[in-house]
């Protein structure tokens, strides 16, 4: 018998397998599960469990960003326009969202 807390998590949690590496993406705000207004700007945390990552990386997700706010100096085919796998996974839930790594080197 699975307890109700495991069937219906209190906070958003995703298990990720991206490019052959595994990690967990989670939020600490329970309103993300029930209140669409909480989805404007919020934080998610990503942790791989690898030795090189001692604590979860905090990501800031902005679901109301605009495409014209992006850097126009790079064309869509240039390497700088490519999105990271983790960011693309986040965009499967929040299409068009921008993901800020808050100064952390992108590693996934």
From TrEMBL:
One of its GO terms (biological process) is protein K48-linked deubiquitination. It catalyses: Thiol-dependent hydrolysis of ester, thioester, amide, peptide and isopeptide bonds formed by the C-terminal Gly of ubiquitin (a 76-residue protein attached to proteins as an intracellular targeting signal). Residues 53-82 are annotated as: Disordered. Residues 63-75 have a biased composition (Basic and acidic residues). Pfam families: MINDY-3_4_CD. Keywords: Hydrolase, Protease, Thiol protease, Ubl conjugation pathway. GO terms for molecular function: cysteine-type deubiquitinase activity; K48-linked deubiquitinase activity. Residues 5-103 form the Deubiquitinating enzyme MINDY-3/4 conserved domain. Hydrolase that can remove 'Lys-48'-linked conjugated ubiquitin from proteins. This is Ubiquitin carboxyl-terminal hydrolase MINDY. It comes from Bucorvus abyssinicus. The lineage of its organism: Eukaryota, Metazoa, Chordata, Craniata, Vertebrata.
């Amino acid at each position: 018998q699975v307890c109700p807390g495991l069937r219906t998590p209190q906070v958003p949690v995703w298990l990720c397998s991206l490019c052959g590496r595994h990690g967990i993406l989670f939020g600490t705000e329970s309103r993300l599960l029930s209140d669409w207004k909480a989805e404007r700007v919020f934080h998610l945390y990503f942790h791989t469990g690898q030795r090189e990552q001692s604590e979860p990386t905090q990501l800031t997700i902005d679901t109301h960003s605009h495409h014209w706010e992006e850097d126009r100096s790079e064309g869509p085919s240039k390497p700088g326009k490519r999105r990271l796998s983790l960011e693309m996974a986040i965009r499967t839930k929040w299409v068009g969202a921008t993901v800020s790594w808050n100064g952390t080197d992108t590693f996934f």
